[in-house]
Amino acid sequence: MDFLTDNRFNGISRFEKKLWLASPTMHGDEQKWVDNAIQTNWVSTVGANIDEVEKEIAAYVGVKYAVGLSAGTAALHLATKLAGEKLYGQARPNAGTLAGRRVFCSDVTFDASINPVAYEDGEAVFIDTEYDTWNMDPIALEKAFEIYPDVKLVVLAHLYGTPGKMEEIKRICDAHGALIVEDAAESLGAKYKINGQWVETGSLGDYNCISFNGNKIITGSAGGMFLTDSLEDANKVRKWSTQSREAAPWYQHEEVGYNYRMSNIIAGVIRGQVPYLEEHIKQKKAIYERYKEGLKDLPVQMNPFDAEKSEPNFWLSCMIIDKDAMAPHVRGEQDELWQHEVGKSSPGEILAAIAAFGAEGRPVWKPMHMQPIYRTHAFITREGNGRGKSNAYIAGSGVDVGADIFRRGLCLPSDNKMTPEQQDIVIDIIHRCFN
Ligand SMILES: Cc1ncc(COP(=O)(O)O)c(C=O)c1O
Questions:
Q1: For ligand 1, is residue 113 a contact (CB within 6 Å)?
Q2: Is the pTM of this model over 0.70?
Q3: Of 378, 396, 397, nearest to 387 (Cα)?
Q4: Which domain holds residue 59?
């Protein structure tokens, strides 16, 4: 379909400059701190920018220690390894700390959350999602502990900057003596009320991680951090991330190491961004609210959150189409086919329409249990085993919550440099998709 010549879209012209899903927003000080690193010759993985952002982020999130790393993925790897070592002991150099162990994992997330379980030779067991926040379902998690009572580790993410049901999840993990790796890569600045107290995501797990990837709420172009109250854990991550150097005049190693430290140049960009975190959150919230208001007459909902217990950072605004307003849309492994029906639409049609006019959206992250790489791994829903449910002899069987949100949901352009006028055009295009 050519949207630019379709009558339904008469009068709308292409955006002159592409509207992004979420792109970096620079303010000027980033250059100053990068220049400072170069002028003082701290062009390395040590330097004042790293020290400063570690201090600032630890203070902001409310943890004692932050360790700057090359990526959120690096932070997640070392957090997962720390958990594995604490639970099961130190592994041989050629084996992961989770060898032969199962780990309960968020299902609707980016694969970087849970790949570290595989790096450490563990087996991810995916836990279905709930509709209230689009995060790990505590009821499905409880079910998973019934089925696999030996599991001692849970890796969970807060999707699109919306905190999950942490109070329930922490209660369940405590009851089963399980540790939590918290992936707050998308949720820096999001707050959650636990035991009557507001705390930041990135401080809720036993091991916590954030990301400064280019699309995140603040960025260094790349980078990540491990966050903790344990000096011992912080020091271990510092050691592992710098090739596991021992205290000796020569290169001496007792453990496998990694080159995962943050660059002082990248830390300069982050240092320039930190003062603008709150401003970015405000802008993202305004975008979310404008979509909510602008789309309220359509058969769609925004990505939900618990307003009493959480304050998201609104990193990405998303929408989900009501079941009876879904036009036909099927997805293969790498291609898709959708069809227009009057009064209905689909993520495929809406994403193609906004792309035709120069705006970037994205399908909801495809659930991990549906990914080819993890299709042989267990998947647990509220009912128990979530595999093998498309039963030829049971009518209407087969769709879990994660698959349903993936099927009906999409991420909208959420760039904080998008103007209200541009956003109104996106909202208009979405309306016309339903015409
Ligand atoms: C939920 C989640 N976890 C982990 C990551 C990985 O972070 P990084 O790109 O900094 O390695 C990302 C995004 O990139 C993410 O969205």
A1: yes
A2: yes
A3: 378
A4: 29-275
